[in-house]
Model the fold of this input.
Amino acid sequence: MDASTPKIAVQDLSLAYGGTEVIHGITFDVRPNEILGIIGPARSGKTSLLRCLNRTIDFVAGTRVTGEIRIDGADIRAVRDVHALRRTIGMVAPLPVGLPLSIYDNVAFAPRCAGLTRRAELDPLVERCLRQAALWDEVKDRLDNLGTALSGGQQQRLTIARALSHQPEILCLDEFSIAIDPVTTMRIEDVLRELRREITIILVTNLTHQARRLTDRTMFLWNGRIIELDRSEVIFSDQPSRKETLEYVNGIFG
Ligand SMILES: Nc1ncnc2c1ncn2[C@@H]1O[C@H](COP(=O)(O)OP(=O)(O)OP(=O)(O)O)[C@@H](O)[C@H]1O
Ligand SMILES: [Mg+2]
Done:
């Protein structure tokens, strides 16, 4: 595999729930170590698209996925170990999903499931993930406290630490800042800028300014179709290729 191989290559992807198609034959690439933004109105298919990438869409009965998704060139439907695929892709949901466990155990949960049990291995991993999520300094003296007792912004950073604990190559964040304050949001944005040196990031956001600040390229998804995908400086300029993009970014619709 050479350096020009996309990290993710999506080819003619369609998704239907029951008989209703909600993603209509979309094709795009995600490049290694880029931050790709996905913007678009409610029900455009943003969350559904993320679910296709890690195949958690398989859990929803009655779905039909056609087309192809390749990660590092390999077709994700041909993978033998779907759990390994899901470990490759960290997911952060809009609201923190804490396990009713200590802060330490939240982060150690997935590594333990993968067979890592020695404290000598787990301790540095837990510390590294909490540092990467910019949470370590606030919790290092109370790792045994319940994760669910942290503030909303801290819990969201704990969710990011958990997503990093299985050392993903791709991190998807779905409107991660919907319930957190602007200061914490900025801290997490700094975290993402650091992380992109090591991993590839897909950022679903309805915050136009956030996409403009953080992303290399941005996809405008609308009703399950890509209206435009380009460098973010083009998407957020006064001259994107499509009139719909200009209108959406400027809040004229959506
Ligand atoms: N489990 C499901 N069963 C049936 N339809 C679904 C399911 N999940 C999503 N949909 C439908 O798929 C379409 C896309 O929804 P999706 O949640 O992917 O959009 P979204 O862009 O993430 O929206 P939002 O900005 O509100 O989060 C919508 O019409 C939605 O009703
Ligand atoms: Mg969504």
Remarks:
- The two ends are 40 Å apart (CA to CA).
- Residues 103 and 141 are 11 Å apart (CA to CA).
- The beta strands are 8-17, 20-30, 35-39, 63-71, 74-75, 89-92, 170-174, 200-204, 217-222, 225-231.
